[in-house]
Amino acid sequence: MKTDKVLTIGIDIDGTVTSPSSIVPLMNECFGKDLRYEDCYEYNLANVYNITDAQFDEWLDQYGHRLYDESPVHGNADHILRKWYAEHKLVYISARDARHRDVTLDWFTRYQIPFHEVDLVGSHDKLAAASKWQVDLFLEDRLENALQLSEALQIPVLLFDTPYNKSTLPDLVHRVNSWDEAQEKANQLFLARTSF
């Protein structure tokens, strides 16, 4: 159901609101590696770290709380999201499991990041949640999600540039390098409707 807010903006958390490099130091510590963020050439870090998907899932199960608690904010995301909150409905749609809701909300409070809804779907498939919340724009770092959401919902997606999402993009997916660029692109896309 639409509100009096101008836009409903769907926002991924990890790698979008949090720094995309934040997982690397913790994985290095746990797996005895010395990889750099730039070495993460694909989203599936199990392949990057030469471990199985099951080992990665087990690691995330054990260290997810610490990762979500310690991740820094991505650039000036907090400042821009505080500006957007007054005019737009902010719905965070994340692959995090629901059991990580408390650490997620504590982190949002610590960094004064406002939200209207936080939907932890426990899966990389965010399409049903994005449909449910009727999002007009989505912010994401995972290429597969950006492609799926833009095509299925016919909405623009802002894809934060990372080493693991290099690809030619369709017209509705726009690569951005920073939150300032995201704000500028959102302004261009929705100039007739609103201002960011």
User: What integer is the average pLDDT?
Assistant: 95
Oligomer: single chain
Number of strands: 6
Strand/helix succession: EHHHHEHEHEHEEH
CATH class of the largest domain: Alpha Beta
Instruction: Determine the structural class based on helices, strands and strand pairing.
Output: alpha/beta
CATH hierarchy: architecture of the largest domain: 3-Layer(aba) Sandwich
Q: Brief description of this entry?
A:
The protein is of the alpha/beta class. The chain is 40% helix and 13% strand.
Description:
InterPro entries: 5_3-deoxyribonucleotidase-like (IPR052419), HAD-like_sf (IPR036412), HAD_sf (IPR023214), Nucleotidase_putative (IPR009206). Belongs to the 5'(3')-deoxyribonucleotidase family. With 196 residues, this protein is of the alpha/beta class. The protein has 2 domains: 8-20 and 74-189, HAD superfamily/HAD-like (Rossmann fold, 3-Layer(aba) Sandwich), CATH 3.40.50.1000; 23-70, no CATH class. Helices cover 40% and strands 13% of the residues. It is built from 8 helices and 6 strands; from the N terminus they run E-H-H-H-H-E-H-E-H-E-H-E-E-H. It has helices at 23-31, 45-48, 53-70, 77-85, 101-110, 127-132, 143-153, 179-189, and strands at 8-11, 89-94, 117-120, 137-140, 157-160, 173-176.
